[in-house]
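User: structure tokens for this one?
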Amino acid sequence: QTKWDLASAYPANNFHSENLVQFASDVEKATAGKLKITVHSNASLFKATEIKRAVQGGQTQAGEVIQASMQNEWQIYGADGLPFLADSYEESLKLQAAQRPLIEKKLSDQGLVYLYAVAWPPQGLFTKKPISSAADLKSIKWRAYSPATARIADLVKAQPVTVQAAELSQALATGVVEATMTSGATGVDGKLYEHLKYYYDLQAWLPKNMVIVNRKAFDALDKATQDAVLKAAAAAEVRGLAASKRVDTESKAKLKANGMQVLEASSQLKADMKKVGETMLGEWLEKAGAEGQSLLSAYKR
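Assistant:
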């Protein structure tokens, strides 16, 4: 029997984590127990920012990482974290199709295997006070979890504070954070309704979590086991997308049920944020160069 550990940074009851557990179970069943994968959720094995390196170095055989958090390493990772570039599930799938071959090659060069990716529900804005335009965000303590979310803070003149999902509730409780752009799912996971009053359903972007494996660990498996892993990964991608859509609807209902005001963004706030998105796309293209341009062309096709 071969045993793998899979590190994840999200709570055990998050839909991504549940999907990982199902994936692990599918692999174990398909290989008749030959490969057993243990999922370690809630950053219990490694922090979100340490997972990719840990998989690369073989400290854990597999891991789940949010692509957008790795944008500083390589701009293409951050394409699905650009506000209003792909702002629906349909657009997110098109962007994923354009991103995937580039990411697979990059990971392969780094000794990693790309298994699958699943989008979070569309990102909205959680705040303590009502917001009707970007001007209302000035000086607000803004949670950043990726280069893009930090840049949004700069552009709306908020104060960026780097906080990963596992530490978010504490940061809110202690007043370190007063606003965040994230999905309704994270809002429910972190019980953001205990500290924040408003959720603006901006549908700004759908960042993806991808599941990666150490290449040596993958290559050490026999062909039948490798095939079983890839088949289970393809099924997890389809199942994860359906779960993401379901969770998007459910989490907004849960936020409301817990006393949060779930609102449409004002046309002014939408226009202000769209402008932020355009600025960031321009900056991203400058940094991403020819690779970014070809990704964008493939996506627009």
